[in-house]
Queue: 2 jobs
Job 1
Amino acid sequence: MIKGSRMWGAAVVLLLLGSLLSACGAAPLAQNWPGLTVADGIVYAISGTPQKVYMLDAETGVQKATFVPTGTLRGQTYYWSPVTVGGEAAFVGFASQQDKLFGLFAFDPATGQELWRVPADNLILAAPAYDDGVVYFGTSSGHVYAVDTATHTFKPGWSFQAKEAIWGSPLVIGGKVYVPAMDHHLYCLDAQTGQVVWDYEAGGSLAAQPSSNDGTLYQGAFDGRVYAVEAGSGQQASGFDFKAQNWIWSEVLVADGRLYVSSLDGKLYALDAATGQVLAGYPYSTEATDYVRAAPAQSGESVVIATGNGRVTAVNSASGQVLWQWPSGGSIPTSGILTTPVVSDGRVYVLLTNGQVYALDGVTGVQLPGWPAPPTTTQQ
Amino acid sequence: MGIGEIFTMFILRPMLNALLWLYSALGNQFWLAIIVFTILIRVVMTPLMLPQQRQAKKMQDLQPQLKELQKKYAKDREKLAQEQMKLYRENGASPLGGCLPTLVQFPIWIGLWQSINQALGHQPLQLLGLSQNMYGPLRQMISADVPLNRFFLGMDLSVEPSVLGGLTYLLPILVAFTMWLQSKMMATPAGVGADPQSASMNQSMTVMMPLMFGFFSLNFSTGLSLYFVVSNIIGIITQGFISGWKGLLFWKNMSLGSLGGLLGGPRPAKPSEGDSRSRAGRGETSSTSATTEVAEGKVGGTESGVQRKKKRRRKR
């Protein structure tokens, strides 16, 4: 009997070890961060378990509608891009690997009703870009697609593929589509045909949308540098040089002729747009163990950053002095923040990695009533 | 500091950075980095692994004496157990001597799996982890190379065989086979000396562990399978130097009966049935009895195949 139980013991140990390894191998959460968009008085937040798009009243935080693709989904782990609003629809990339469902979905912002969908060959992790009736989006296999929103079909003859994944949103300006890619290249495509006009090779992977200012594109890279590239020619702008101590994974904020750059080294830099020189009063440093994935956002006279540890800080854009912090009074943040804060109507919206959206007063940093939203899973 | 932070600081980060350094030093080939890293891990683990392998050899060497004890105390199992323990004690052998190294390897496997996932990350959170876990000077070297070259013979080392499909299914099979071969070379012959339940357990473990690891390998990145295969091959070679190479000739003594043994197998003969009726004696070979023969052939002073043939001739 004892020996029999020894055998059972061994079997149990094996099962436990197996469970341990399997648990490590399971991927209960999508391996990206949720998106946050504010447009026309609606906050679009990816939240919940399993995740869906929540549409919240931007003033009160009251839930107006939700969106998930129609049909039965067996998977529990979904990949969403941030929502983009254009025309009269909202667009979002969605993937459920278990359901083998990858695509771009258009839905009604008022009701959450699915309008149409087009398939994709892989995950869409970056927000789609909308311009003049066309939605452009890239996938993790490196493809970039253009979809005509009137016919809900891919633009004929339009095709482009990078050598690595597309994790940054395309930027559409003046008939050109600028696409950052993980293969270190910034591509300039003709918006009509998808043909490459030029491509610029940076020293690291590009995972954020480029920013434009006076005919120059500013692009952060994983080698810690910000690259200034002439939008017309694809040539590097002369005299510009900047390097942070860790990767730059966020969009460069252009405001009042200055560049604001956040880095995974935990610092916020203000740069001269022409030279890349760090301006006086900067960099602003977060706690030693903290980092900043999210891009900075402008709120009046201040620049707001949100850190990986979950702290939101507003600094005076000119001096770099701290104006307010949230949570205030030395409180410990409940969750990290990887998503770029959105400023709208004097409010700063932040989405925590736990899926909760908070609205803060843009001047004081005080949490506004009615938030956080949506309700947590346990409250529902 | 929580257990997660301790794990990250003392296991994940050193392993990840070692892999990244090797990647950089070996011409940006991650598969090569994994192989060299595996060899280094085995070297570091030698003080733990060698006693395990020597224990296996000792246990094999003790089989004739254990056999004798079984004959002698066939009807008194309590006394048999006492005498067995005494024999183990006198010879410095421990039937459980192999457990510790296996347990020690678990954090290494998990650390390596996480290192591979981060280093070869193809989703944002994985790469974010990489950026936070690289040591400063290495970050300067590696950042410009991200995403790292993750392909080996056209196979993505960061993706599971169950996702990749095709020929990558061979990898879990190779993991299971090399692990089985290694445990066959190390195994104490079942059915001899040990009590039947332990023998049966030994036999099951020899089969179950490789099957289980083969199954895990299906659902883990192929890079981890590469580690398992290389590690097992090193284990086989080391064991070969300690207790001989005959264990590699597993097919020589295999039969349909032994295949049955592979899949759970017949229960070993009870001591009361007499060891003279053991499978080897009856001419029934099983995978484990095959190992017994190999081991006995190697151990000085025990019955070799030639000696048994002579005995049979004399009987006739």
Job 2
Amino acid sequence: MGIVLDEYVSGGNVGCPGCGAVLGMRHVLKIMGKRTIVVMPACCWGIIAGPFPSTSLRVPLLHVPFETGAACAGGVRQALISQGKEDITVIVWAGDGGTFDIGLQALSCAAERDEDIIFVCYDNEAYMNTGIQRSSATPEAAWTTTTPEGEGRFKKDIFEIVRAHRPSYVASAVVTHATDFQMKFEKAKDKKGFRFIHLLSACPAGWRISSDDSIEVVRLAVESGSFPLMETDEEGEVRLTYYPEKLIPVTEYLGLQGRFKQISGTQLSGIQEFVEKRMRKLGYTEEEGMRRNRVGDERAFK
Amino acid sequence: MSKDMMTGSDAVALGVKLAKPDLIFAYPITPQTHIVETLSEIAPSWGGRFINVESEFSAIASCLGAVSAGSRAFTATSSHGLLLMHEVLHWFVGARMPLVMVNANRAIGSPWNIWADQSDSLAQRDTGWLQIYCETCQEALDTVIQGYYISEKLLLPVMVMIDGFIISHTMEEVEVHEPQKVDAFLPPYAPQFKLDVDDPRSFGNAALPDDYYRMRKAIQRTFTSGFEVFRDCHNLFEDVFGTRYDLMEAYLCDDAETIFLVAGALTGTTRVAVDMMREKGMKVGLIKLRVFRPFPKHALQKVIAGHQDVIVLNRAVSYGAQGTLTQELRSAFYNVDDNPDIYDVIISLGGKEVFPEILMGVCEGIKADPAFKDEMIWV
């Protein structure tokens, strides 16, 4: 299926210029279509959806308290089951706070109960809506307003946490790798049970980048191996779905962002080492990257 | 019509069965557990489903999702569970979503204590939930059914209180209503707005100050006009089932010099105490406060006259101030010319036993020394 012309996110919304989360929602809803209900805990999108009485979504939207995303969505799904409505997709659309931190209990337990919902975390790696405070999704060395010297700990591995629940589908995705993105959301839509997609989403204000660079920076995250595109299902085997032709140095990804300005040489080499090790563990080799990119992106998705 | 012996918990479960919610989301907590155990067994009998979630927080949040999508739902909790729900309790009211929740009143730690105490529900006083306190197992059953009627008319959630153990675990004779009578009383839940892909709407979008203020004002307006819905509910309930309920009940108050005001299961003990005192020639009466929110100020002003003393029996304290019920009653008589002396008695917390003799002692004590009216009286 190609990208459809229907739009479910209206123009004139109050997203910041270059916001990755608006682009993410736009393309997720193009794939999910009209028969979709969005459940939204507190996050940037809580504002982007527009102040009463306006709304920027053309599908039903339920705003819910911060930590309740997965539980409320489970309630919506159970009601649809009671009413015999079987063809509706229920999505939780949560930021990293509502996923990694305050939303984790509800997320874990909805996954454990195998609630028939798609939980999408658009991860901009800090509490951006409240003014760039660190979350457990904030990567090592990143500046935020509560980590003025840079984050000291590494980013929590949400993919592995969710995978441990053995849900029907877990994937990571980015809008810049559109084929991969499209295939993953289509796959998620076709499956039943609990599904989770981790969407890296640039925040120009919080990442200290020009709004012009919000596409480029996410592309670099993938091409440097900092954000591997991968998927798994209830079997639990993790597959890399996109092989960069050649891993570019992480410094190109980090260097574009003002939030890593104060990174030390030791931190940088530590991160580089971690990224390479993880990519190797996922089965990445430069030979494989070269080979796959010769025959085209779509072949990589196998 | 048939009668059966059952605990308050089973009476609640039977009330839920007759109201037929699509979904029950719950998390077990003493002393509410028998309600959810019974419901998990009987839910399939009316096509309902019981879903055991991982916390009270997710129980109430799942209810929010289900009701927003157009289904009738139910949950029950107690004490710490109710406190954990607090944020979503507020959210329910702002979202104008109907729900019935039973709270088995229990004390709050620390220290741990599982016995009857109304601190849990009275601490939710300002959330905007309607609150009804029950005296008997029968009343618990009937109030669950009435709760849905009221909640779905007013688009506000209803909390039904039964005292932990005293009602929840005690067996009484209960009239089992015929399902068709309940159907005649309670129409199916048919909300005007719900999450609907064929009529997409957003629920809960941020409201700017003027809109927010207007919506909050509408909640208060609903509380004010809510008394009419209570009256309709009580009239219809009497027509269909033959039992009369009201916002409050006045027992032997007309000629009483002293009136006890009490909510919940303690009403039963106080009735016995009042009868005992009457036998001794003491002119005492009793007001059972059934509906706490909306607070029936005018009804209370009508029953209580200025020459009477009122002894308020509290099972919750607003520390540093007064018993919670005392505060409410004193406020109801502020700016009233002919107002009574109101005595603030903290009678029982954490399940501390109350015997009729203790109540008689309290009554004699305040008669002997009216200076008690300026004090918080710990028995």
